[in-house]
Amino acid sequence: MSNTTARMIRRRTPESAAMAASVQRAMAITPRLNRLAYDDAAQIRAVFGELIGAALDDGFSLIPPFYTTGGENIRIGRGVFINQNCTMYDLGGITIGDDVLIGPNVSLITSGHPIEPAQRRDGVTAAPIVIERNVWIAAGAMVIGGVTIGENSVVAAGSVVTRDVPPNSLVGGNPARLIRTIGEQA
User: Fold this and answer.
1) 8 A C-beta contact, residue 148 and residue 161
2) Which of 10, 32, 35, 113 is catalytic?
3) Is 113 an annotated catalytic residue?
4) pTM score, two decimals?
5) What is the pLDDT of residues 73-129, one digit of tens each?
């Protein structure tokens, strides 16, 4: 995990009420998104833009279905592709850089619960995920909050990323570990 410290959102606070309202909002928007066909790219961009509260460039592409807990804490760069059946729990914030490819069944999970049994029901923890430019996250991978994936890196299919990934790296496994460095081929 990076140097990012998870924050705690305690139950029965204004912040937890806002979190609940955000979930309700997302649950009203995502069914509209998930009824759209892949070839309705402009409408997918419009509804996804409504979900995250930002306009998307014409290079953005998403194949529904898509799931999120809120949506407004997701930031998307230019030329991003998100394949079908992805889940983004964005309470801690998710930043996706330009030209990122996200495979099917990828989960980006920024929230959790305290580890100590006596504290687990006290609230929710949240830490951001940052995915830098030109990253490819392959099918079925999971990225945990507090992680940054460096520019040009690849996360192998089925991996669980619990620590930062250096730029220009191929990582894989559970937990994901460095397999090798990668670079541009001439």
Assistant:
1) no
2) 113
3) yes
4) 0.93
5) 999 999 999 999 999 999 999 999 999 999 999 999 999 999 899 998 998 999 999
